[in-house]
């Protein structure tokens, strides 16, 4: 009778190959676990030096617009939410007395008022009044023909289905980029403001993405440009 583990040389070679395969599987599992911990604890999303998909490129261009020389830009490592929900709501059912939103020359979203955790607590639990600056647009509005075209594109695309999440890589060449786990951004006061970027929506040569930070929000319209994308317009900033 041949005992398991005491085979001839052929059997020993087979067992050696089995052990090698097991070691490789364990090593691969170790890498996967390390990558998962990196995402959860530090906001790491891989080692891609450049965005590859259209959705990644749209988010990349948005991040570049949000940056400023010498300043860090803290952002949730994963995009979330539909980019045109606010547009759809405000266009289909505008609040009374609200000036109709418009499209402007794009500019960086830069909130001027950040509420502390204590202020947020007082406003919600003690009904204390807090002041948040109105997020006015400081660039020129686009021509009426462009307004109409952007409104039409945004309205049609706002009714499309689910959008896909983008993981923001800390290796993307964006000055001062700190892509971190969302909870770390919420409890940290060392990097302000904390930007949140929606899932982008991309249809052929048109894309939209929304950015929020410190109770300010805005939506950007992008157009395909060569192998990449370019931000062409910014919708009226809003307060939330």
H/E series, N to C? HHEHEHHEHEEEEEE
The low-confidence parts are 1-47
- Structural class label: alpha+beta
Q: Write down how many β-strands occur, each being a DSSP E stretch of 2 or more residues.
A: 9
Q: Roughly how many Å is the radius of gyration?
A: 24 Å
- The number of helical segments is 6
- Work out the strand percent: 15-25%
Can you give the helix content as a percent range? 25-40%
The largest β sheet comes out as:
9 strands, mixed
The best one-word shape is globular
Q: Average the pLDDT over all residues and give the rounded result.
A: 78
Give the N-terminus to C-terminus distance in angstroms.
Answer: 78 Å
Description:
- This protein has helices spanning 9-42, 54-66, 85-92, 117-125, 144-158, 182-187; strands at 73-76, 103-104, 177-180, 194-197, 201-203, 206-213, 216-225, 228-235, 238-239.
- The longest helix has 34 residues, at 9-42.
- Strands 1, 2, 3, 4, 5, 6, 7, 8 and 9 form a nine-stranded mixed beta sheet that branches.
- It is of the alpha+beta class and 240 residues long.
- The protein has six helices and nine strands; from the N terminus they run H-H-E-H-E-H-H-E-H-E-E-E-E-E-E.
- Mean pLDDT is 78; it is low at 1-47.
- It is globular, with a radius of gyration of 24 Å.
- A hairpin with a 2-residue loop joins strand 5 and strand 6.
List keywords for this structure.
single chain, alpha+beta, nine-stranded mixed sheet, 6 helices, disordered N terminus
Ordered list of secondary-structure elements with their pairings:
Layout: H1 9-42, H2 54-66, E1 73-76, H3 85-92, E2 103-104, H4 117-125, H5 144-158, E3 177-180, H6 182-187, E4 194-197, E5 201-203, E6 206-213, E7 216-225, E8 228-235, E9 238-239
Parallel strand pairs: 1-3, 1-4
Antiparallel strand pairs: 2-8, 4-6, 5-6, 6-7, 7-8, 7-9
